[in-house]
Structures are given as C-alpha cells and as structure tokens.
Backbone:
C-alpha cells in the first residue's frame, strides 16, 4: 500500500506500532523476569536482586530428577512426533486424494481432538486405561499425546498436499511409478517443509504438554510434571533456571523451524 | 488458467485409475476411534451410572442422579459460571486487543520486518504453557518484581495474583496471539486492490477498515475466538497457578473429583457439561464461518 | 468384451485404437460420448476443439490417468483399458510440464528409467543421450525453476521420450509459451516426432497449431468427434458448420436443394440465387433445406469473379485491415452480407459495388443436413 496519508493517519500508524511493541513487551517481560531471577542468588523472588549466581543452573545439573524428567520428555516427544507425522501424512494424503461419501464429515470429525480440553482428554484416557487394567507409564503418555498430535500433523500436511499440483503425481505414474513410489519419491519430498513443521510442532506440543501427561503417568515424570510438582510443593528457584533453559531452547528451535521453512517454501512447488 | 479451462473438471469428480487411497485414513481413524472416541464416550457414559463403592465399580442401570446433583449444587453452578465468564471475558478482551495488533502486523509494519515481527508474536507460545504461567506468577506475586517497581514509584502493592484478573491476564495473552494470528492470515490474503479501490473511492482508513477489512476478517475471527474460548473454558493450568486454588473453575472441579476421590461419574458429569458447552458454542460459530467463507470465495 | 491381454493384431500399423470409449462424471455430466478412433504408427494426430470438448479427457484416457466409463482402449492391439498408467507403454507431456521441482533436470529425465529398474550406468548414458538430443546437456544439474519456459518444455519432452514410448501424448504443451517461442517449438516438435518415428497425439485448442503440425486432425465438440481428416480436408472440406467456423472465418448459409447433376449439386440461396456446389454425396431430397459454407478467401472480386461459376454483386459495408489481408463485409441486395477476404492490395472504397464470384469447388455442402456415408 502506497497511499498518501494524512497527518492523523500517520499518528494512527505510530499508535498501532506502539501497541504492537507494548504487546510484545508484555509477552516477553515475564520470561525476561524468570531469566533474571535464574541468575539471582536469593531464595526469594523479590526485589532488590542479590548477587549474580549460577547456583540454580548447577542445581539443575546436579539433581538427577530433572535430567531424568528431561530425558523422559525428549523420549516421548520424539516418539510422538515421528508417529504422528507418519500417521498424519498417510491420513492427509488419503483425505486429499480419495473420494468417498461422508468425507467432509469425517475430515471435520478427525480434527475434534484438537478442540477438546486437555483435562477432559487426560481424565477420559485415565479412566479408560484404568478400566482396561493398563499400566500408567511413559507409554500411556505417548498414546495420550498422539490423540491431539495426529490431527495436528494431519492438518498441517493436508494444507501442504493440497498445494501440490495433481499433475506431478500423475507424471510419476505415467513414468512408471506405482502408488507408493509416487508417494515416496514425489509427494513426500514436495511435502518436506510440512513434514519438518509437523515434526517440530508435534514434538514441542508433546514436550510441553502437562495435563494429559499428568493423568497418564505414575512414576516416570516428564519435565512439565516435574516443574509443576516443584511449583506446587514449595517453590524452588531451580525452576527459574530450568524454565529459562526451556524458553531459550524453544525459541531457538522455533527460529530454526521458521528460517528453514521460509527457505523451502520460496523455491516452492508452484514455481 | 488455461489448464483449468481445458481440463474438464477432474477436480470435482475425479476418477481414480490408481485406485482410491482411502486406506491411508485407516491408521488415523483406527487410532482416534480407540484412543479418543471410545475413552471420551466411555467417560460420558459414566456420567449416567450410579456409583457403588469406588472407582469404576458401577451399580447396574442408568441414572440422571449426577446431573440432578450438578444442577442443584450452588458450588457446581458457580464453578461452571466462573469458567464461562472467564472464557467469554478472555475472548472479548483478546478480540479487542487482537484487531489493532493484526492490523499493525498486516498493514503498518514494513514488509521487510513483517515475518520477523510475526515470529516474535508467536515465538513465546512455542514455550511451555506451564513455564509461561509460572512466569506470570513470579511477576505478579505480592512481593514480586512488579509490586517492587510499583512500590518504588509509590503505588501499590496491588494484590492481583490469585484473582480472576490474573487468570484473565494469563489467558488473554494467549488468546490475543491466537486471534491475531487468525486475523492476520485473513488480512494478509485481502488483495491490496480492494484497499486501493476503497481508497480510490474516497474511503478513509477507518472506513476501509469497517467496510472492507472487518467483514472479510470475520471467518478468521470466528476460528480464533472459538479456539480461545475452548482454551480458556477448559484450562486447568492458568486458573491454578494464577487464579489460585480456592475459587474453583470447572476444570479444577473435574480435577478434584478424580484426584481426591476418584469419583468417575461426577468427573464425567463435569466433562459432559464442558463438552456440551463447547459444542453449543462451536456449531453456530463454525456454520457461520463456513457460510461466510463460501460467500467470499 | 475381449480378454484383457489377448493381442488382436500384433503386427499392425495401428498404434492406438479407441473403441466406443466414453466418459461420464457422476450423474448427468458427460465428458466424452462413445467415440472410436484409430491412430496410425508414426502419425502426428491432433485433437482439436474448444474448452470442455473432451479432448483432454480422451488423451488422459489413453494415458490411463482417467478411467473410462465404457469402451476399450488398445495399444498395438493389446487391450489396456484396465491397466493403470504405470503399466502402459504411453507417456504424456503435461501442459504445466509437471517437472519434479525437487529433482535436477538429469534426475527428472532419469525418473522413468529408475522406476523401470534400469541400472545406474545405463540410466546415466541414456539420460545424457537424451539431453544432447534436446540440446540441454548444459543444464543437466540444474533444477526446473532455473530453466526458461521453452527449456522446461523440452525437458518434459525428453523425460517422456527417454522411455521410448510407443505413443507420446501431449496436452497443450505449448499453451504457456509466448507466440514467437511457440512457432519455434512447433517446428522443433515436428522434427522430434519424425526422428522418434512414433505416433504423437497432440491436444490443442489452437487451430493454427493443429493445421501446421498435424498429419491428421480430429475436431471435437461436446464429447463427440465432428470430423477427422488431414489439415487440408478439415480446412477446405469442413463437414459441419461447427468445423467450418472453428477452423477459420467462414460464411455458413442456408439453401434449398434444386437437384443434382453428376457430382454437381444445384442449390437455391434466397439472397444469392442459384448456385452450384461440387459434392460427392447428397441424400437430401429435392426442396430440402441444407447448409453450405464458403471461405472468405475463396471469394474472388472484380474481373476475376466474372469467370466464376457462381456470382453475386454487393456493396462494401465494412473494411477491416489485417496486415497482409483485407477483410470486407459485403452487403447483398437482400441486406444480408458475405465476408470476403482479399490481398491487402485489393482496395475498395466503402459503398463501392463489387462483383463477387467463386467456383464449383469453393462452396462446401455441410453434413448436418446431408446424410453422408463414411468416405
């Protein structure tokens, strides 16, 4: 838009940009405060700050419970993201390329797990597993996280698959590819940005998820559960340190995803 | 364009020389049936069962007892209304904040920085919900840094932590991002011609906002607001960490029914109420959104 | 229907044959009416018609990308109706080329060979040969988006030809290119077709493309074949008013049959009077009304018109300059008009009265009213 603007409209722009900056400030301020307190030697979260210290980070390092919880979260997250992305890819491919009565209704139903609150899903699965007499473990957390991760992955990849011209897959068939060869050698590589996005997003959702995991594990804690336990049972500034670490690594991961995705999508399918 | 004209609509009624790949949906459907539909269905059915002993040891037959109990108990009603009030307030506040935000991102910021600023808006939400909520808790605490600073300039201390206001604040931060993101997606897809045409026809900025941008943004608002409503209505984390545990919301009541007494039928009744509410809100919003999208496409 | 794999004519010169092939979508939507067609080995055959005439559907049915609702598709005598595209010895060049954006040019061309299990060394050799054949060896390592439109078109062609298909299908392959490049590539395509020695089935809505490149043209409308013939036949002896109009500017008129004298049919055109047309067949009865067509450029003017069998006078009502040609609308006494095309040197002033004339072979009796046996 290169419109000529009046003075009032210029002021409006300044106001809007100010609002944007203000919102970003409010978003990042709490995280920044956590970061600052993670280096504060004091036990209590009050001003003024005491001396600079890395003791809380040392605590994270020393406390095997944190490391263990972290390992559990990574394990579940990786397993969830791989499974959800594979299952979601197949589902998205079928939704885009197959035709059967009731497809619209089914595709609406398939995304409902995203719209169901975590606490409801957690309780429903806890009761269900309890009824079946299953053990609560990291595996049940994995099963629980898949419920919302599969639809998420499916949605992400469906929108990408819709952009791939049908003629590309047809060309593959025409050149001698069978269905699975076309999927593997043409559709999957072209859906690559969505596959990456799906892997990262489902991993993050699983890694950060608290309430479903909380209802589905008994002895093996994931990181959010461990943090929650620390928050509820008497505060320990170690949480500041672990929180800062998670925020920092999430932001880095997000930035990497963003950069790699935009790089891929620019020399895109439709060129 | 030419291809679209000369290929006789294989997109509407395609034939499938390679077979119909519906089997790709089998894993998804099978999984969601086993680990979503059945568990949720079982839980909902439990709300109609009479308790006998503890846990899943139900008396034979069906009953509406738990619903009668739900509607006759003032504390249940208040929890429910609290959740509803918080959710509606979150949606309202988030919408008001999201519009200028999305507008600024879509039309005011320089194009070169649009992607970066968009990333900055979304990035915090890549981090753990628990940690973000805890960060607010830290900031807002009675003797926390916010009151520390306010004290320096002679205000306060304000006791905001463990109130509904704090819950609202925590949820609104998330809701604003969610709605703004959906609005931005719609606004960005508005062809600049529309706005140029509006300007050419003499529309001032606010006029072109109300006559062009706002109507076109409604589908985005619908989806964003709906997601925000569901999140705020069913959330357990923010009301617990920021709102405190005393004035319970529906999610906390549900949590309590399971963790303290493992009273499945009661928890199931709360769950049914939660789902029914979400469904009541979702269906009209989705129908309206869909019909609007059809008009504009 | 015959057993699927039984070859009926192994050593014939028919490359592709369609038997009563039809295609319906859903309930009422008919893309292709039952249609039969023979494509000869080594022939350049064009399916020509407006949007939605079923030409692309027919092509895709031969490729196997579209299932047929009824009928049979044979390639070299083998029934392939129920074979998926990967099991057919055909290859298609798409309008958008459908080059795989994630593969290099060499890998694009090698894709089909890889699918067919051709070994790495053999594959590389054949890809390089093909790249040299289409003069693109220097871009082997590039990706499709780094190539120009014309280059992509040649890559698409190479990707199909490397498989040595028994028939090559082309779906408006020049549609996305600019006019100059199109003309170059028309010549190029024709050369490649002669070298490859296989049948090309070419779909287009561009009549000039069809006329310049084809050995035979199939004009289609509403899922039906209107006429099959050489470009000359299609242009000079259109069988229907639609073909006459689609292939070029044409005067299509109504007339009454007066009688016939050998191969000469006498007609009465209300505005022109008695005219004579040479036509090998006529089964309409005397006094039936028929349609006849006359190309604007077949009409002679001035002194040259005086030697012609058929003559009429009219006034110049409109003049359109076409570069090398002039097009006049000539108003007859009755108020109806004829379109006449002359060399640009043949100038007439508006309102000027001109003598028009044409010969026996210029007028064409159209088939909608003429029950004609297959020639």
Residues:
């Amino acid at each position: 838009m290169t419109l000529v603007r009046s003075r009032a409209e210029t002021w409006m722009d300044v106001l809007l940009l100010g609002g944007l900056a203000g919102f970003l400030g409010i978003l990042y301020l709490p995280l920044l405060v956590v970061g600052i307190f993670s280096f504060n030697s004091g036990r209590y979260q009050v001003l003024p700050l005491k001396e600079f210290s890395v003791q809380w980070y040392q605590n994270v390092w020393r406390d095997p419970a944190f490391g263990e919880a972290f390992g559990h979260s990574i394990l579940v997250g990786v397993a969830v993201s791989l499974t959800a992305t594979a299952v979601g890819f197949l589902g998205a491919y079928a939704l885009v390329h197959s035709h059967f009565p009731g497809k619209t209704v089914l595709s609406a139903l398939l995304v409902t797990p995203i719209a169901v609150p975590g606490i409801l899903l957690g309780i429903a699965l806890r009761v269900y597993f309890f009824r079946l007499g299953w053990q609560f473990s990291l595996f049940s957390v994995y099963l629980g996280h898949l419920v919302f991760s599969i639809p998420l992955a499916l949605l992400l990849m469906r929108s990408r698959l819709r952009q791939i011209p049908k003629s590309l897959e047809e060309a593959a068939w025409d050149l001698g590819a069978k269905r699975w060869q076309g999927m593997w050698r043409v559709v999957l590589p072209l859906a690559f940005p969505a596959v990456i996005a799906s892997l990262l997003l489902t991993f993050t959702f699983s890694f950060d998820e608290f309430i479903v995991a909380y209802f589905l594990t008994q002895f093996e804690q994931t990181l959010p559960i461990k943090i929650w336990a620390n928050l509820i049972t008497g505060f320990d500034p170690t949480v500041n340190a672990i929180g800062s670490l998670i925020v920092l690594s999430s932001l880095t991961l997000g930035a990497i995803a963003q950069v790699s995705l935009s790089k891929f999508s620019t020399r895109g399918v439709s060129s | 364009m030419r291809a679209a004209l000369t290929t006789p609509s294989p997109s509407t009624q395609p034939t499938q020389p390679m077979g119909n790949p519906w089997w790709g949906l089998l894993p998804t459907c099978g999984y969601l049936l086993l680990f979503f539909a059945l568990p949720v269905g079982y839980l909902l059915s439990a709300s109609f069962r009479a308790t006998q002993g503890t846990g899943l040891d139900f008396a034979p037959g069906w009953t509406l007892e738990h619903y009668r109990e739900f509607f006759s108990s003032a504390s249940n009603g208040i929890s429910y209304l609290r959740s509803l009030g918080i959710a509606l307030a979150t949606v309202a506040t988030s919408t008001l904040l999201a519009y200028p935000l999305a507008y600024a991102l879509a039309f005011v910021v320089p194009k070169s920085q649009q992607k970066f600023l968009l990333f900055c808006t979304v990035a915090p939400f890549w981090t753990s919900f628990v940690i973000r909520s805890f960060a607010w808790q830290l900031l807002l605490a009675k003797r926390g840094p916010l009151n520390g600073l306010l004290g320096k300039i002679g205000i306060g201390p304000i006791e905001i932590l463990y109130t509904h206001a704090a819950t609202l604040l925590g949820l609104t931060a998330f809701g604003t991002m969610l709605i703004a993101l959906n609005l931005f997606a719609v606004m960005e897809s508005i062809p600049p011609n529309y706005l140029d045409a509006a300007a050419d026809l003499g529309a001032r900025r606010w006029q072109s906002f109300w006559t062009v941008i706002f109507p076109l943004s409604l589908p985005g608002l619908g989806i964003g607001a709906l997601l925000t409503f569901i999140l705020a209505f069913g959330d357990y984390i923010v009301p617990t960490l920021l709102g405190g545990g005393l004035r319970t919301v529906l999610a906390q009541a549900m949590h309590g029914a399971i963790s303290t007494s493992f009273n499945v039928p009661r928890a199931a009744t709360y769950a049914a109420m939660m789902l029914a509410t979400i469904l009541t809100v979702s269906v009209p919003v989705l129908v309206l959104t869909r019909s609007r999208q059809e008009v504009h496409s | 229907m015959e057993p699927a794999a039984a070859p009926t004519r192994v050593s014939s010169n028919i490359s592709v044959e369609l038997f009563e092939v039809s295609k319906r979508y859903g309930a009422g939507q008919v893309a292709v009416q039952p249609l039969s067609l023979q494509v000869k080995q080594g022939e350049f055959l064009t399916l020509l018609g407006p949007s939605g005439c079923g030409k692309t559907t027919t092509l895709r049915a031969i490729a196997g990308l579209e299932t047929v609702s009824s009928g049979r598709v044979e390639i070299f005598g083998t029934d392939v109706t129920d074979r998926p595209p990967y099991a057919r010895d055909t290859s298609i060049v798409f309008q958008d080329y459908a080059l795989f954006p994630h593969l290099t040019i060499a890998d694009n061309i090698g894709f089909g060979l890889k699918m067919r299990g051709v070994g790495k060394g053999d594959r590389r050799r054949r890809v390089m040969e093909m790249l040299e054949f289409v003069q693109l060896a220097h871009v082997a390592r590039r990706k499709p988006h780094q190539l120009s439109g014309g280059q992509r078109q040649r890559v698409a062609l190479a990707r199909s030809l490397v498989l040595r298909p028994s028939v090559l299908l082309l779906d408006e392959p020049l549609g996305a290119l600019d006019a100059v490049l199109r003309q170059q590539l028309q010549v190029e395509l024709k050369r490649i077709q002669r070298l490859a020695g296989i049948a090309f089935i070419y779909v287009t809505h561009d009549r000039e493309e069809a006329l310049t490149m084809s050995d035979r043209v199939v004009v289609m409308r509403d899922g039906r074949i209107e006429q099959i013939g050489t470009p000359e036949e299609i242009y000079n002896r259109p069988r229907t008013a639609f073909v006459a109009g689609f292939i070029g500017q044409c005067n299509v008129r109504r007339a009454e049959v007066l009688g016939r004298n050998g191969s000469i049919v006498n007609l009465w055109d209300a505005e022109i009077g008695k005219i004579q047309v040479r036509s090998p067949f006529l089964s309409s009865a005397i006094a039936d009304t028929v349609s006849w067509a006359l190309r604007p450029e077949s009409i002679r003017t001035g002194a040259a018109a005086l030697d012609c069998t058929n003559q009429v006078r009219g006034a110049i009502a409109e003049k359109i300059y076409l570069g090398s040609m002039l097009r006049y609308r000539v108003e007859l006494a009755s108020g109806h008009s004829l379109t006449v095309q002359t060399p640009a040197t043949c100038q007439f002033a508006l309102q000027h009265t001109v003598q028009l004339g044409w010969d026996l072979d210029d007028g064409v009796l159209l088939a909608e009213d003429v029950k004609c046996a297959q020639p």
